[in-house]
Design brief:
single chain; alpha/beta; four-stranded mixed β-sheet; golgi apparatus; six-stranded mixed β-sheet; globular
Amino acid sequence: MKATADRRLHEQLVDGSLLLIPIPFPQKSHPSFAPSLGLSFLISLSLSMGSKAHSRFGPLLLRYVSLALAASSWGVTAGRLSPPACDLFRGTWAYDESYPLYDSASCPFIRREFDCLRYGRPDEMYLKYRWIPNGCDLPRFDGRDLLERWRGKKIMFVGDSLSLNQFNSFLCLLHAAVPGGRTSSNRTEVLTAVRFEDYNVTVMYYVTHYLVDVVREKIGRVLKLDSIQGGQVWLGADVLIFNTWHWWPTRGPAQAWDFIQDGKKILKDMDRTVAFSKALTTWARWADSSINPATTKVFYQGVSPSHYHGQDWGGSYRESCSGQTQPLNASTYPGGPAPQEAIVENVLGTISKPVYLLDITFLSQLRKDAHPSKYNGVHFQNDCSHWCLAGLPDTWNQLMYAAVIR
């Protein structure tokens, strides 16, 4: 039965998805927390559960606690076991003439993969949409405020090119807030760093496709599902934003490994969804044992969808993101949730430390219009996995900002 379910899940995989998550920030007490006995009970219950019960109920508690914390920042009482009035991750996209949040031509940090206007995209409507959550407003990103809050801090995005997408967006948002500010940068094979000198804030991107290690051995490149040596570098940051998934389904010449090591077993291949789940579990154990929430804040980027097949949003199978100019207006996504969402929630539910999930999947599923398609500087014929900048990743960073200031 389990094998059938795993196989079905594997068959539903969509090439090019992505992921993201965080840990709540220590804050001063908020009046709305005073009556929140139900929330306090849930947090205590989540932390005191046995591992078996935690794995079963953890994701549900994680989702409720994340939404309740978000709701409380808008003065909503979160003490009852009913859906909170504010859900940052469910809502609609609305036209807003004041958007985008910055001019891409004025941002020096956008890589050519994401610079759609520069490489000929003729329409600009995709730049004009603002995310409106159910029951509340999403605070506008205030880069100057964030630089002040994180003065002297190091922020690191850890993951694949979708982390790079969000990293570039974040740099542009900060640059737009202090356009005359002094910056310096350096780059190695795996780490790019940009320093906002006037605030002593360093924003970094550490490239890792799988979070777990790929090690060169005599037999070739081995993807080790239970090893994270890179974590020593990550611990130098004050804020961490993780993601992985985009590369797990990749096969052929672009595949970045030759063998998989699962425990003591060396395999030529295995179910990629199962491998992803095992690797994410390794990352969760690392976060639980290595992160001090009092000093280090951890985000995990939710699952970012791709738009290669129109049937996913109610169109024809031959349709893709190419030529799309408007978001989907729907309360649910016709193609359903990304299968990896459940894996992320289940794994995060096993972490004993507080975790806040940036659940970006649904709001991103609606943005079939926001990909580069052919308008990129690296000759991708039709990129429906990454996102134009300015564009959707700016909203991901707005959601992260909302988590910081709540």
